[in-house]
Amino acid sequence: MENKTQPNGTARLEIAGKSYELPILKGSTGPDVIDIRKLYAEAGVFTYDPGFTSTASCESTITYIDGDKGVLLYRGYPIEQLAEKSNFLEVCYLLLNGELPTASEFAEFEYHITHHTMLHAQFDRFFAGFRSDAHPMAIMVGAVGALSAFYHDSTNIQDLKQREISAHRMIAKMPTIAARAFKYSAGQPFVYPHNSLGYAENFLRMCFSVPAEEYKINPVLARAMDRIFILHADHEQNASTSTVRLSGSSGANPFACIAAGIACLWGPSHGGANEEALNMLREIGAVDRIPEYVQGVKDKKYRLMGFGHRVYKNYDPRAKVMQQTAHEVLDELGKHDEPLLKVALELEKIALNDEYFISHKLYPNVDFYSGITLNAMGFPSEMFTVLFALARTVGWIAQWKEMIEDPSQKIGRPRQVYTGATERQYVSVDQRG
Ligand code: CMC
Questions:
Q1: Catalytic residue at 367?
Q2: pLDDT grade, residue 140 (50/70/90)?
Q3: 3-state SS of the chain: helix, strand, coil percent to 5?
Q4: Cβ proximity of 223 and 201 under 8 Å
């Protein structure tokens, strides 16, 4: 990757009467950045930004978010257009390569992904080591990390071809692993992938078919699944993506880096929120309990899960598509009277008109409606974050690949402001008071 930022003036910083000129750089859109790379060497100070609220950690050409306007672009294409007109595998190609594929490029890519979906036979024995009540995200972290023990021939990160093969392997095998995590917890036999099926269809079949019965794929549900994957495919430098980049900055192999990303995604402030959002809707249970629940949020007893976002200070564009998908799925399954949907719609209405939520710029995020949809499709709530991880894998890989190919890439190594004890002398145990 070629660095593309352009100079756009300088910023002046005064410290103890001494002045320092810092270059300002601009990207193709979005806020300019102050380049502080030489600050410590020249001025002997660090910058302090826990939570990285004002810090750009890298240069990237993959995903752009305008949080105030509620805009999300993958390689420049609005998420709404991709969700309506594209499909997940095409989006994968776009994220990895920067451009939409031609028909022949797509056919080749689809062939590679389809023909990497099987797991090494010994890998299946790996699942048996988990307790039957293991959370499927725990299985995902372990199983994906274990891929590096099975596919040694694609762990040399300096080799472009190996990087490509590891990318194809992870995108292809993630649905197989996720479906096995699901089947394992359900106590059902594993179902093998079938190369005649599309990506989302194959995944649904591996999750919901049983050997004793014929499984018919519902095209509305397969389309909804594919759209959910598109919506979750990438999201700029969020916590799990930054984890993948930081892990990869040391030269770790891509399977290990993606396992680190999955671990980070699991937390309830990040990918774990879809599970929490559905649990919350269940806890509220009925429309007449909403005011009491909202009061508890305002009293800061708990947070409204599926609401708020570090970057979006407007409606999350993914949530709009997700709400529409929720309606489509519930209509198809004859569940439009689903009480949880009623609670969600009313909760959203009340929150969007409430002064607390307006002043805090809290809007529904992608997780608000995804839980209801996935639940209606037959997934238990423990699987929601697994589906997020499956879809986000391509984004993590695209970001990891971009980092490896960036000439300015260095090992990530933040500093700190130290507030602990200064140097002191060791005291032997018999002399401690
Ligand atoms: N419910 C109630 N109040 C909230 C919420 C919420 N969901 N989110 C933020 N606030 C309040 C918070 O109490 C604080 O208020 P005050 O200034 O009065 O103390 C203010 O808004 C700012 O909160 P913050 O924690 O500093 O904001 P943040 O940008 O660090 O947090 C967030 C972002 C996503 C962690 C947070 O909004 C949250 O916890 N939301 C619920 C969990 C959730 O839905 N996460 C999924 C995010 S989208 C999918 C993904 O990217 O993984």
A1: yes
A2: very high
A3: 55, 10, 40
A4: no
pLDDT in tens, 301-345: 999 999 999 899 988 999 999 999 999 999 999 988 888 889 999
Does any ligand 1 atom lie closer than 6 A to the CB of residue 366? yes
Structure tokens at 265: 């995604």
Residues 6 or more apart whose CB falls under 8 angstroms from that of 402 comprise: 1, 58, 60, 61, 62
pLDDT of residue 374: 95
The yes-or-no answer on residue 309 being catalytic is: yes
162-192 burial, b for 16+ CB within 10 Å, e for fewer? Answer: bbebbbbbbbbbbbbbbbbbbbbbeeeeebe
Ligand 1 atom with minimal separation from the 309 CA: 34
Pocket test for ligand 1, best of 65, 307, 356, 357 (most atoms within 8 A of CB): 307
- Tokens linked to 287: 């429309």
Taking the C-alpha atoms of residue 252 and residue 399, their distance in angstroms, rounded to an integer, is 14
For 125, half-sphere exposure in the C-beta direction (CA atoms, 13 angstrom radius) is 4
Name which of 254, 230, 234, 236 is nearest 244 in CA terms. Answer: 254
Count of C-beta atoms within a 10 Å radius of residue 333: 15
Task: Verify whether ligand 1 is closer than 6 Å to residue 248 (CB atom).
Answer: no
- Quote the CA–CA distance of 401 and 298 in Å, as a whole number: 42
Residue count of the chain = 433
Atom of ligand 1 nearest to the CA of 368: 44
Report the half-sphere exposure of 175 (CA within 13 A, side-chain side).
32
How far apart, in whole angstroms, are the C-alpha atoms of residue 182 and residue 136? 6
Inter-residue contact 213 to 206 (CB < 8 Å): no
Nearest to residue 146, comparing CAs of 175, 126, 169, 166? 126
pTM, two decimals, is 0.94
> Does residue 336 have its Cβ closer than 6 Å to ligand 1?
no
Q: Whose C-alpha lies nearest to ligand 1, atom 8?
A: 308
Protein residue with its CA nearest to atom 15 in ligand 1: 360
